[in-house]
């Protein structure tokens, strides 16, 4: 057993299947924040060459479970628990939750198990048009998971409310903790120069959308709204991301006759340099959990417009006080807000203040409070 210094909290983050999404990035940032305040952190993954892992500090121990299937990780996790007995195991995806809670049944140590739902679960099923039978089965699965966990961490109040609606577990069992979205590299990358002629300041205003090209982000509504704005004000629209809706969006661009004022460049290594150059960022989503890119845009002082989708934008924008919120799937209302914001940009200082709590350290302290563990040390006198 690896010894833990007396009184030092020990947290394990368990996320086997690792892609390039927001869940993975936030789990890495949670580990970074916890390590920053002196927590011993283990990070269990299936592959060690996964995205974002290079951001972990050397103090975080990365543990690889070489398994072909998720269920095959169960005996390895049980062995890990017996040998290490961490205070907390935090998981963030349904398959990982299942494995973690099976291990919980077979571990008699001090470890408590927390789940971290990262999106509006009911709203996602509704927006996707999930078959009623599948929806019922999914709800049963989620009820089982949430009821067996020692605690739940929701990334927004909207997510917490949906967890309660699904599972009927007490609200007291759920902690709402803001995502650790704002990092030092956000500001560093935003200041980097990018060789892209579209970022030249003399060109018409740049409107930016960012995200996977999939149903959730509802980029067709953004494109239709842009077509309306463009009739009244010279401007350009760029959507950064990749996904299965690319051909549909390119076809829609032709239908709307967007011509050279529209670009779909795919995935870019540094979206923050593009954000910094944009006059307006637009979130057109049908559902979220806590929209990280909206938070990042506000942190950079970029004017934003967002749909009032479940959940997150309402909380991030303080109920629409710092940036306009519009109904989902309504190009006309979205266009009105976009046009108004382009003509009268929002107060950058106010935008930055609105998301000042979405940092590595503040999020880490929130997690420690949710876990019922003592924060080991203060950072910068806090």
UniProtKB/TrEMBL annotation:
Its EC number is 2.4.1.291. It is an enzyme of class 2 (transferase). SUPFAM superfamilies: UDP-Glycosyltransferase/glycogen phosphorylase (SSF53756). Keywords: Glycosyltransferase, Transferase. GO terms for molecular function: glycosyltransferase activity. InterPro entries: Glyco_trans_1 (IPR001296), Glyco_trans_4-like_N (IPR028098). Residues 203-354 form the Glycosyl transferase family domain. The keyword Glycosyltransferase applies. This is 4-alpha-N-acetylgalactosaminyltransferase. It comes from Candidatus Thiodiazotropha endolucinida. The lineage of its organism: Bacteria, Pseudomonadati, Pseudomonadota, Gammaproteobacteria, Chromatiales.
């Amino acid at each position: 057993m690896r010894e833990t210094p007396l009184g030092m909290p020990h947290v394990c983050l368990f996320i086997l299947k690792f892609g390039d999404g927001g869940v993975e990035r936030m789990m890495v940032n949670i580990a970074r924040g916890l390590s920053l305040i002196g927590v011993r952190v283990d990070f269990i993954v299936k592959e060690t060459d996964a995205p974002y892992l290079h951001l972990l500090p050397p103090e975080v121990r990365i543990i690889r479970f070489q398994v072909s299937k998720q269920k095959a990780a169960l005996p390895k996790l049980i062995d890990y628990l017996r040998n290490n007995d961490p205070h907390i195991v935090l998981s963030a995806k349904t398959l990982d939750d299942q494995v973690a809670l099976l291990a919980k049944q077979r571990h008699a140590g001090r470890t408590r198990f927390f789940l971290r739902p990262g999106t509006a679960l009911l709203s996602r099923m509704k927006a996707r048009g999930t078959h009623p039978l599948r929806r019922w089965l999914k709800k049963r699965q989620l009820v089982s998971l949430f009821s067996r966990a020692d605690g739940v961490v929701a990334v927004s109040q909207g997510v917490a409310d949906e967890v309660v609606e699904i599972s009927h577990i007490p609200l007291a069992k759920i902690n709402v903790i803001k995502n650790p979205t704002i990092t030092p590299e956000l500001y560093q990358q935003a200041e980097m120069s990018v060789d892209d002629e579209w970022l030249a300041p003399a060109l018409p205003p740049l409107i930016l959308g960012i995200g996977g090209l999939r149903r959730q982000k509802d980029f067709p509504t953004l494109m239709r709204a842009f077509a309306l704005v463009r009739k009244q004000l010279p401007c350009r629209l760029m959507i950064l991301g990749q996904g299965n809706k690319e051909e549909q969006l390119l076809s829609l661009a032709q239908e709307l006759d967007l011509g050279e004022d529209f670009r779909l460049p795919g995935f870019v290594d540094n979206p923050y340099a593009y954000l910094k150059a944009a006059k307006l960022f637009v979130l057109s989503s049908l559902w979220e959990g806590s929209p990280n890119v909206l938070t990042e845009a506000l942190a950079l002082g970029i004017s934003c417009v967002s749909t009032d989708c479940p959940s997150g934008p309402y909380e991030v924008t303080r109920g629409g006080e710092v940036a306009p919120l519009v109904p989902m799937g309504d190009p006309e209302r979205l266009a009105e807000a976009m046009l108004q914001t382009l003509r009268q940009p929002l107060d950058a200082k106010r935008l930055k203040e609105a998301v000042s709590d979405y940092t590595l350290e503040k999020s880490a302290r929130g997690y420690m409070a949710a876990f019922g563990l003592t924060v080991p040390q203060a950072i910068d006198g806090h």
